[in-house]
Specification:
The protein is mainly alpha-helical. Helices cover 63% and strands 6% of the residues.
């Protein structure tokens, strides 16, 4: 009977013994992480979508607005506003794609690279604080297991 009760608990998404739903804990973690990232970005005057766009461009320069929007998990219309503001601040520049005259390719400026690098360091320090009680093996396992969950829901991570 106890085995059946444990199976029922895990089937309804609740952590065994805690009574908490996994989705609830993840939602709380998401809110906490977003709030902590906002605090990290505040000194730089960036929003999370702006930081995300800069981070994506740091790893993959020359993306179109649509490509940048997909990688940043926002709509192309919202990305247009993000890129305009980043361009106004001198953090990115856009150039017409010579092969497709209607496409603008976005790249970081030197100032954009400097700012996003500092933001990345601040976010890494926040993550370090969040994971302080995990050893390196536990951190890798956590990231791997969460990535499996994201992949299982078709939410954008590559095959593991």
């Amino acid at each position: 009977m106890a085995l059946e009760e444990n199976a029922a608990e895990s089937l309804d998404g609740r952590a065994q013994g805690s009574g908490l739903r996994l989705s609830y804990v993840i939602a709380r973690l998401d809110r906490a992480v977003r709030g902590a990232i906002e605090e990290c970005l505040a000194p730089f005057g960036l929003t999370i979508p702006q930081f995300t766009a800069l981070s994506v461009l740091l790893r993959r320069s020359g993306l179109s607005n649509a490509q940048l929007a997909r990688r940043s998990y926002i709509t192309p219309q919202s990305m247009h506003d993000v890129v305009l503001e980043l361009e106004r601040r001198g953090l990115v520049r856009r150039k017409v794609d010579p092969a497709h005259r209607k496409i603008l390719r976005t790249t970081l400026t030197a100032e954009g690279r400097r700012i996003v690098t500092r933001c990345e360091s601040a976010v890494a320090a926040m993550e370090e604080e969040m994971l302080i009680s995990f050893d390196s093996d536990a951190r890798e396992r956590l990231i791997h297991e969460l990535a499996i969950c994201v992949h299982a829901l078709g939410a954008g991570l590559p095959e593991l």
